[in-house]
């Protein structure tokens, strides 16, 4: 991407996402600073599209804008987006949120029995298990996007020392609440599902709840800290310490 004039923002691209959507690609790489720009564009879309707006889906680098094609033609929606981007790029800096996202502290038990990739990550990083745990738990992460599964939050940015690729062969079954890393991202699985991320431990947090407003505990822009606890504390707060190797088949959330 080339650099937009008078702005720290690269020149964005507007890509088709079907008859009722446009994908605005703002950045080529994942950076925490992206959130301010994505948030500024989302707020402007809410105002400019009004009742024609169906949904806004932010990610690390893009914003998906879904509109009502009965109220707005695709070309009209694209022109509206182009005008918003031109206005956004004219500013030297994006609008800032008045408040930071909510801070969540997730109690996490880091242990090879529930984090079978913990030792391999330590070897890859040339660090001790304790150093890996301290490194992962020692910073506050931002929620950049929700996806893959309801309540699954993509968070970053992970310390570069822990940067590891996804597994060559994804696991068919990852237990609920498993805390994982891949690349410079971290996440916790809200439900039992397949997954190819590297598992470090397990949290007690209920990440997806049908009785909760919005269902997901975490929202885009929220801040997350993983708080290391021992097994006794983990179980006392409702954590399931069943090792992955002996976890019964078909066990649910």
TrEMBL record:
ATP-binding found in the keyword field: yes
Tagged with keyword Phosphoprotein: no
Keywords, sorted A to Z: ATP-binding, Hydrolase, Nucleotide-binding
An example Gene Ontology molecular-function term: hydrolase activity
Domain Carboxyltransferase stretches: 12-218
InterPro entries according to UniProt: CT_C_D, Cyclophilin-like_dom_sf, PxpB
SUPFAM superfamilies: Cyclophilin-like (SSF50891), PH0987 N-terminal domain-like (SSF160467)
Name of the protein: Allophanate hydrolase subunit 1
Domain of life: Bacteria
């Amino acid at each position: 991407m080339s650099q937009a004039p008078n702005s720290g923002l690269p020149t964005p691209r507007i890509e088709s996402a079907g008859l009722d959507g446009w994908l605005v690609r703002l950045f080529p790489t994942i950076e925490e600073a992206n959130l301010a720009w994505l948030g500024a564009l989302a707020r402007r879309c809410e105002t400019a599209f009004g009742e024609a707006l169906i949904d806004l889906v932010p990610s690390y680098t893009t914003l998906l804008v879904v509109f009502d094609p009965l109220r707005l033609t695709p070309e009209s929606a694209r022109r509206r987006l182009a005008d918003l981007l031109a206005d956004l790029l004219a500013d030297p800096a994006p609008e800032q949120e008045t408040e930071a996202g909510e801070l969540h502290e997730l109690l996490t038990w880091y242990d090879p029995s529930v984090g079978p990739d913990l030792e391999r990550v330590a070897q890859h990083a040339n660090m001790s298990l304790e150093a890996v745990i301290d490194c992962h738990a020692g910073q506050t992460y931002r929620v950049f996007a929700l996806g893959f599964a309801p309540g699954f939050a993509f968070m970053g940015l992970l310390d570069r020392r822990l940067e590891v690729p996804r597994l060559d062969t994804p696991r068919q079954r990852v237990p609920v609440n498993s805390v994982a890393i891949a690349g410079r991202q971290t996440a916790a699985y809200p439900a039992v599902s397949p997954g190819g991320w590297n598992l470090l431990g397990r949290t007690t947090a209920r990440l997806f709840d049908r009785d909760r407003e919005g269902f997901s505990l975490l929202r885009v822009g929220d801040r997350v800290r993983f708080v290391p606890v021992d097994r006794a504390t983990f179980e006392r707060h409702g954590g399931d310490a069943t090792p992955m190797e002996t976890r019964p088949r078909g066990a649910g959330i």
